[in-house]
Specification:
- The complex is a heterodimer.
- By secondary structure, chain A is mostly beta strands.
- In chain A, about 10% of the residues lie in helices and about 30% in strands.
- In chain A, strands 1, 2, 3, 4, 5, 6, 7 and 8 form an eight-stranded antiparallel β-sheet that branches.
- Chain A is globular and about 35 Å long.
- By secondary structure, chain B is an all-alpha fold.
- Chain B has eight helices and no strands.
- The longest helix of chain B is centred in the N-terminal third of the chain and has 46 residues.
- Chain B starts with 7 loop residues before the first helix and ends with a helix.
- Classes of the chains: A mainly beta, B mainly alpha.
Chain lengths: ~160, ~170
């Protein structure tokens, strides 16, 4: 395991699925990273201590997360298939519909994710971050699976071949 | 602010030994005075910036000093429970805050404030929800929301002003 997370947090993540691309940081989180912001945490916390785009409800649900990215010119799309000149995001949710994570497509077959309070990684499929289990309190843990995809015209150039 | 020593020719205009004519001399004098003022402004600005950083470091250092040897067994136990209950793969503050141990820390009320501030001084963590819930105050300015290092400094400064940390 190349990062500082515990193996049980990502039971399906293999060494061959990813590479670490940053040191661990709590300066930003997955949603900020997906929105190209590594300067602050985007979080709809009701205590309003963290950044959240103005005018969007401070609630954790799928529709609210999608609205955040609509503000960034993303629109719904059907799947994660790579398209030239387009960038995509994948929103993960658990089986009770709670969004947990967002990954951003970097290039064909390459995604980038900020994992919780830990490192950024590049990963080569979306399934490797998936999984679900219940904890002692009955809460659903882990990221679940990708349930929604959005796309926009690419603003960051793809990596050179 | 430290005193700045300017070259003597800037402060003694009457002695420049070049005949430029009155208008040119006035223009040069005006420009040099303007530059002198700008240098003083920049020096003042730089000093204030350094002084603010020094103050921040002093606040953090003092708070970290306070953090040593003043543990509350109940608080320490709840923090340990909270750390065990939370998943750090999820990074949304609300999910940490609804955990039973975190709620019990909030339930300790104002007596938890110095303990939380000391914990925050030791290590940046998701204490902001509890601090605001207990105190009803919010020293973090809107433009600094989500910038955890700035938030940490703002709350420690607040704690110092309120006498919760020295």
């Amino acid at each position: 395991m190349s990062g500082s997370w515990k193996q049980w947090e990502f039971p399906n993540l293999k060494e061959s699925d990813h590479k670490k691309t940053s040191e661990a940081s709590d300066d930003y989180n997955c949603i900020a990273w997906a929105a190209f912001d590594d300067t602050k945490r985007w979080d709809p916390d009701e205590m309003e201590q963290h950044y959240w785009p103005p005018g969007i409800p401070r609630v954790i649900n799928l529709e609210v997360f999608k609205e955040v990215f609509r503000r960034l010119n993303f629109e719904d799309c059907d799947d994660a298939t790579f398209e030239n000149g387009i960038e995509k995001i994948a929103i993960y949710a658990t089986s009770d519909g709670q969004p947990t994570h967002i990954a951003r497509q970097v290039d064909n077959g390459i995604w980038t994710s900020k994992l919780g309070y830990w490192e950024d990684i590049e990963h080569y499929n979306l399934e490797c971050l998936g999984g679900e289990k219940r904890d002692y309190f009955g809460r659903i843990m882990l990221y679940g699976k990708p349930v929604s995809y959005m796309k926009r015209i690419r603003v960051i150039p793809q990596k050179a071949e | 602010m430290p005193e700045i020593a300017y070259p003597s020719q800037i402060s003694s205009w009457g002695t420049i030994p070049i005949n430029l004519g009155d208008i040119a001399a006035q223009q040069i004098k005006a420009r040099v005075l303007d530059t002198q003022q700008r240098i003083e402004d920049l020096a003042e600005e730089a000093w204030l910036s350094v002084k603010t950083k020094i103050d921040d470091i002093l606040i953090l250092t003092q708070a970290e000093g306070d953090a040593a040897g003043k543990d509350d067994p109940e608080f320490e136990r709840l923090v340990e429970e909270w750390q065990a209950q939370r998943s750090k793969s999820s990074s949304f503050a609300g999910r940490d805050a609804i955990l039973p141990a975190y709620q019990r820390i909030i339930g300790m009320g104002p007596k938890a404030l110095p303990l939380i501030l000391r914990a925050l001084a030791k290590q940046n963590d998701n204490w902001y929800w509890a601090l605001k819930a207990i105190s009803g105050e919010d020293p973090v300015s809107p433009e600094d929301r989500g910038k955890t290092r700035v938030m940490r400094e703002a709350w420690l400064r607040w704690g110092r002003a309120k006498g919760y940390v020295r």
